[in-house]
Design a protein that fits this description.
alpha/beta; Nucleotidyltransferase, domain 5; Poly(A)-specific ribonuclease
């Protein structure tokens, strides 16, 4: 179904605040014909582990993920749009969104994208809340956490149940490749269960 690409066939668009609107205009034009989105996020890592008593492993896991997503800032998001044959948009476009971030109190990157601006454009892009779009990730718990935070921010919902209510609305078709590798049945890997895997 999908084919291999060479580096000559791929053009990475580094997106900063100056070209954010322009690049989302391109994405809006492409999404109808290239409705599969592979994405990844870059973030500083994991800095905390919640303490306290939790009723279930899932409650602890959601607290672990949400507390880290709430504390830390997004560094980058990458989007790769393809069609059902695995073709990239004309010109081999893929996108790398660069956010305001710093290791030492945000080293304030003046060219970086404000998370709120990204979230507003993502919301109106046609990429989210669209059942004709399929999101593809690998080990997506933090990735979807950060994307949802850009839209509903500044913190994630208090419970995993609320989180998945947003997830079902914003990303109605999404697959996690890590889960596919564990499952015999592709439908079982559709993101809908829990963040513990």
């Amino acid at each position: 179904m999908f084919k291999s690409l060479t580096s000559k066939e791929v053009v990475i668009h580094n997106v900063w605040k100056q070209n954010l609107d322009e690049e989302f205009i391109k994405i809006r034009r492409y999404i109808k014909d290239y409705p599969y989105i592979a994405f990844d996020t870059e973030f500083p890592g994991v800095v905390g582990t919640p303490i306290g008593a939790y009723k279930t492993k899932e409650d602890f896991q959601y607290s672990y993920i949400s507390s880290n997503v709430n504390i830390l800032k997004l560094i980058q998001v990458g989007f790769c749009l393809v069609n059902s044959r695995g073709d990239l948009p004309p010109g081999g476009d893929i996108w790398q969104f660069n956010f305001k971030f710093s290791v030492d109190d945000d080293m304030y990157n003046t060219d970086g994208i404000r998370v709120e601006d990204f979230g507003a454009l993502l919301t109106t892009s046609g990429l989210v809340a669209n059942d004709k779009v399929t999101w593809i990730t690998f080990h997506s718990c933090f990735d979807f956490g950060y994307l949802i935070k850009t839209i509903v921010g500044p913190i994630l919902p208090a419970s995993e149940k609320e989180f998945f209510a947003f997830h079902r609305i914003l990303f109605p078709k999404s697959y996690d490749i890590k889960m596919l590798m564990k499952c015999n049945n592709v439908q079982a890997a559709q993101v809908r269960g829990g963040l513990q895997d």
